[in-house]
């Protein structure tokens, strides 16, 4: 590019006239020698334009365009440098303009080459990329270089042709793709080209005949129809009045009219009591209706959806009233049915009931009488005729029906029911038995009519002779006989019905009544016979029969049934123990404790070494048995599993709680012999002595345990024992001795720090906690104690730092995140607490987020938003007990006490070992519960003995609560909760 001189020193362009572009003309001054120069002539301008057009290759087209520009304002006029208007009007294209055009054209071409090369570089294979040279300086000759991504690259000659071919192929492919896309997605103007071309063939008459487009859409027509059909919502009261206008009567009005008539029966006195009852009845119905519809105003109504649907379900026509139009339609249909098929009994019955519904009882009787004539063998038609007539006519109709159907048991029974006195009923039944002696139902009716046992026995004896396969008749006869004769009857029944297990069960119950159940196992013989006859019921059916025996006070028979049939159909490969435990739990849930006890007894005979079965059986006796039965089960358990310290300690605890301290000591002595140096038994013995005031004996036992069984737990319990007694120095000395042996036991470090805190030595406590978290970095309670000590000392930054280290050592822990949120909340940094809560909910797994959601609901959420937040939490964490307690507290605050109680009980069922849940529930019952309910909750809590919970552990494990029972701890925790 040439170097240009200063603008003011440059010569004027050719044919330049100053001010000509803005319309100025030449003028003369006194300093001028003559008039100013005129502009170029019109011929000169045309000549310059022709030269320019020739240089650009347009020929004479420029002149033609100049003429057309006056009429055609096309976009090309703005692209022609010689066709300028306004400010640039009258300009002349000179050499500099030509040079500028050339420079712009070169720049455009250069930019196009760069874009093509850049696209080429990205599209070339990796092997071809590697053939480019490094940036060069000075620049190589043109044609061999290109500029890409901030660097100059040189192309080797051997791939120059490949690049050229690649560019040409790519451009051809892009052009083909572009044409294919335009063909598949044509523009709107291209889609209508043929239609536009076809418009040229339309004549003027056809153009004039085109209709107006105003109403083709139907808009005006739809608007007119909408105005004609416009309606408004009618109040419910109008709809109710319209629906009741066609009814024949209403129950309320009839009841009120009856009350009015009864009130004025004597004509002289008014019965105000009955009038008041009628008024109250009407008022009650109105109140019930109002409970479904809250408001009715104008064209809107507020309706309770549940109540409205319930009222619709109950809005059927009252008895004796029906819509006339509906009755007429149904009557026509039924008449068509009975005319088409006059022997169709259900059609006659339906037609008669329709007339009865319409209140035309006479027509109904006539119809059903015709039906009896048309269907004399259909007992349903005769029974309907009997029902529609009074007692006198019904007897006549029943006699006619029996004449036509003397083998119908239902007609004989109905005829018997029409009689008033017992003697007539017996006579009818005996006539029926003469005709149908093999009917079991008739014999049962005959036996039920007898007042004397002997007469009933005679009838049953005759019935069993005629119907030997009826198990019910045999069992009824055996119940009426003496025990000796009952055995004979059951033996006959067993021979007549060898596949009936009910007869065998009755025989076993008879042996139980006679006191010979243990001598003769009838059920064992029953299983053999039934299996031989291929009539053995399923195991579940036998359990059902055993539960029936338990309900009917036959526990021995119940146990025998379970003993002989519980293993039926189960192989050794099956999970028999789990199956039987599930059967026992199901029986316990149904309240059948004798059956469950028998199931456990049988299972323990098969699996005598199963500790799980022994614990389940002991739990059954503890909850639903007697103290002696529990001791018997536990004695059998420790004899069968002498190495199970759990069973030994359970037996010793039951003896201790019963007040038999010496027997508890003996049990622990026997346990020592079977399990020498067992730390659980040592600690149980220490607790027994300590709880009963034998401090020296407990201390000696602990010393012996530290020598015989020197475990970390024994040392920890020794230090805790001394700390409970107030011997802080001795407890601290024991802790230090224990830490020399057990550096990785977190509870020792925790106890050491707590002892220093009790001694008001926070610096030593801090050192203990700091050393402890280094030795046991996975202990969350130890981290929490460390953090809370720093917060108590006012070192909030230090507490935050410790919590950060704790979360790194124990990642994704809900307790540590919850403590971080609480520290910020207690410090007043609510925004930071909310931020940490969001991070915690992202970091902690969903199944462990219950405490976090509870904290968020109660401390980081406004009261109106707590319920939606709780709903969101329940969707995320389904059955976390902490979250369930939070929901219960929300309902408690809203005074929805029933729902609150239900949610508290859900939380207890979910995790009964959580002490905080029991405390919250007890606190709720102290405000809104009964005394009986509180006592029930306390007793259940004592039996469960919860061990966990944030507040529960802090209070229950404090040295001051060492001698307190579960009930006392429960009340203290309930008072502590906020």
Proportion of helical residues = 55-70%
> What is the number of helices?
52
Q: Would you give the CATH topology of the domain at 879-978?
A: Serine Threonine Protein Phosphatase 5, Tetratricopeptide repeat
Q: Please identify, by name, the CATH architecture of the domain at 879-978.
A: Alpha Horseshoe
Question: What does this protein structure show overall?
Answer:
The chain has 978 residues and is mainly α. The protein has 52 helices and 4 strands. Strands 1-2 form a two-stranded antiparallel sheet. A hairpin with a 2-residue loop joins β3 (293-297) and β4 (300-303). The protein is flat and about 155 Å long. The model is unreliable at 60-82, 86-90, 125-142, 244-269 and 289-322 (pLDDT under 50).
Summarize the structure.
The protein has 978 residues and is mostly helical.
How would the blueprint of this fold be written?
Blueprint lengths: L41 H15 L4 H8 L26 H29 L2 H4 L15 E4 L2 E4 L5 H25 L3 H4 L1 H7 L4 H5 L10 H10 L7 H9 L6 H13 L8 H21 E5 L2 E4 L1 H9 L10 H17 L4 H13 L3 H14 L4 H10 L2 H14 L4 H10 L3 H14 L4 H10 L3 H14 L4 H10 L2 H14 L4 H14 L7 H11 L6 H13 L3 H11 L10 H14 L3 H14 L4 H14 L2 H14 L4 H13 L3 H14 L4 H13 L3 H14 L3 H13 L3 H14 L4 H13 L3 H14 L4 H13 L3 H14 L4 H13 L3 H14 L6 H10 L6 H11 L4 H13 L3 H14 L4 H14 L2 H14 L5 H7 L9 H11 L2
Antiparallel strand pairs: 1-2, 3-4
Helix pairs in contact: 11-12, 14-15, 15-16, 16-17, 17-18, 18-19, 19-20, 20-21, 21-22, 22-23, 23-24, 24-25, 25-26, 27-28, 28-30, 29-30, 30-31, 31-32, 32-33, 33-34, 33-35, 34-35, 35-36, 36-37, 37-38, 37-39, 38-39, 39-40, 40-41, 41-42, 41-43, 42-43, 43-44, 43-45, 45-46, 45-47, 46-47, 47-48, 48-49, 49-50, ...
């Amino acid at each position: 590019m040439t170097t240009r001189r200063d603008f003011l020193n440059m010569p004027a362009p050719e044919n330049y006239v100053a001010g000509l572009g803005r319309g100025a003309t030449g003028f003369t001054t006194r300093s001028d020698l003559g008039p100013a120069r005129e502009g170029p002539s019109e011929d000169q301008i045309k000549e310059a334009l022709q030269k320019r057009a020739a240089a650009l290759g347009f020929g004479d087209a420029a002149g033609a365009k100049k003429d057309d520009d006056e009429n055609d304002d096309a976009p090309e006029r703005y692209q022609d440098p010689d066709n300028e208007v306004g400010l640039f009007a009258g300009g002349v294209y000179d050499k500099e303009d030509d040079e500028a055009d050339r420079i712009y054209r070169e720049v455009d071409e250069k930019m196009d080459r760069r874009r093509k090369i850049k696209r080429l570089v990205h599209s070339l294979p990796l092997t071809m990329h590697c053939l480019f040279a490094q940036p060069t300086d000075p620049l190589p000759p043109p044609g061999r270089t290109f500029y890409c991504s901030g660097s100059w690259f040189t192309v080797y000659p051997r791939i120059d042709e490949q690049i050229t071919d690649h560019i040409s192929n790519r451009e051809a492919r892009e052009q083909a793709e572009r044409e294919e896309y335009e063909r598949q997605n044509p523009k709107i103007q291209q889609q209508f080209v043929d239609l536009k071309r076809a418009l040229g063939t339309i004549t003027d008459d056809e153009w004039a005949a085109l209709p107006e487009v105003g109403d083709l859409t139907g808009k005006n027509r739809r608007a007119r129809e909408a105005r004609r059909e416009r309606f408004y919502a009618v109040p419910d009261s109008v709809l109710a009045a319209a629906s009741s206008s066609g009814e024949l009567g209403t129950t309320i009005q009839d009841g009120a009219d009856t009350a009015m008539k009864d009130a004025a029966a004597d004509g002289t006195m008014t019965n105000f009591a009955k009038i008041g009852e009628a008024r109250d009845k009407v008022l009650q119905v109105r109140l019930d209706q109002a409970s479904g519809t809250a408001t009715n105003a104008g064209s809107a109504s507020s309706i309770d959806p549940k109540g409205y649907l319930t009222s619709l379900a109950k809005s059927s026509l009252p008895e004796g009233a029906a819509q006339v139009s509906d009755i007429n339609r149904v009557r026509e249909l039924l008449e068509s049915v009975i005319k088409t098929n006059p022997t169709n009994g259900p059609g006659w019955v339906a037609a008669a009931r329709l007339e009865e519904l319409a209140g035309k009882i006479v027509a109904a009787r006539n119809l059903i009488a015709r039906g009896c004539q048309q269907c004399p063998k259909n007992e349903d038609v005769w029974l309907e005729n009997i029902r529609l007539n009074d007692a006198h006519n019904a007897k006549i109709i029943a006699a006619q029906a029996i004449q036509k159907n003397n083998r119908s048991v239902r007609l004989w029974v109905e005829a018997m029911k029409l009689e008033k006195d017992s003697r007539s009923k017996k006579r009818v039944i005996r006539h029926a038995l003469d005709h149908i002696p093999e009917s079991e139902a008739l014999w049962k009716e005959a036996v039920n009519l007898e007042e004397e046992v002997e007469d009933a026995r005679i009838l049953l004896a005759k019935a069993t002779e005629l119907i030997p396969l009826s198990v019910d008749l045999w069992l009824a006869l055996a119940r009426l006989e003496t025990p000796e004769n009952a055995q004979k009857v059951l033996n006959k029944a067993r021979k007549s019905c060898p596949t009936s297990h009910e007869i065998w069960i009755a025989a076993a119950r008879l042996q139980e009544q006679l006191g010979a159940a243990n001598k003769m196992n009838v059920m064992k013989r029953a299983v053999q016979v039934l299996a031989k006859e291929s009539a053995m019921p399923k195991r579940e059916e036998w359990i059902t029969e055993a539960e029936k025996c338990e309900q009917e006070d036959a526990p021995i028979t119940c146990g025998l049934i379970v003993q002989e049939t519980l293993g039926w159909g189960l192989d050794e490969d099956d999970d028999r123990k789990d199956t039987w435990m599930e059967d026992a739990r199901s029986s316990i849930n149904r309240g059948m404790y004798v059956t469950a006890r028998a199931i456990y007894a049988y299972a323990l005979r098969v699996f005598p070494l199963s500790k799980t079965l022994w614990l389940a059986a002991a739990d059954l006796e503890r909850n639903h048995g007697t103290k002696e039965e529990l001791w018997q089960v536990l004695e059998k358990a420790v004899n069968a599993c002498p190495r199970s310290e759990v069973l030994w300690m359970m037996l010793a605890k039951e003896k201790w709680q019963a007040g038999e301290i010496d027997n508890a000591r003996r049990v622990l002595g026997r346990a020592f012999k079977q399990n020498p140096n067992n730390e659980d038994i040592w600690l149980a013995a220490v607790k027994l002595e300590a709880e009963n005031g034998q401090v020296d004996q407990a201390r000696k036992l602990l010393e012996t345990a530290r020598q015989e069984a020197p475990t970390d737990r024994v040392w920890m319990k020794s230090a805790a024992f001394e700390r409970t007694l107030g011997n802080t120095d001795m407890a601290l000395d024991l802790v230090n001795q224990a830490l020399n042996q057990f550096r990785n036991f977190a509870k020792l470090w925790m106890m050491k720090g707590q002892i220093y805190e009790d001694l008001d030595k926070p610096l030593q406590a801090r050192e203990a906690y700091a050393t402890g978290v280094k030795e046991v970095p996975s202990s969350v309670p130890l981290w929490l104690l460390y953090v809370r000590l720093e917060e108590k000392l006012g070192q909030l930054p230090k507490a935050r730092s410790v919590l950060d280290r704790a979360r790194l050592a124990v990642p994704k822990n809900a307790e540590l995140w919850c403590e971080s949120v609480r520290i910020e909340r207690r410090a007043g940094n609510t925004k930071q607490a909310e931020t940490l809560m969001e991070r915690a909910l992202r970091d902690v797994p969903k199944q462990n987020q219950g405490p976090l959601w509870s904290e968020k609901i109660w401390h980081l959420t406004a009261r109106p938003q707590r319920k939606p937040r709780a709903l969101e939490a329940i969707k995320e964490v389904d059955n976390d007990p902490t979250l369930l307690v939070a929901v219960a507290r929300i309902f408690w605050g809203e005074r929805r006490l029933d729902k609150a109680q239900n949610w508290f009980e859900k939380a207890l069922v979910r995790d009964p070992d959580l002490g905080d849940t029991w405390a919250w529930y007890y606190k709720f019952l102290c405000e809104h519960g009964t005394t009986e309910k509180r006592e029930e909750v306390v007793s259940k809590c004592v039996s469960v003995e919860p061990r966990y919970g944030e507040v529960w552990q802090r209070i229950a494990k404090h040295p001051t609560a060492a001698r307190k029972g579960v009930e006392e701890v429960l009340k203290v925790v309930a008072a502590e909760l906020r």
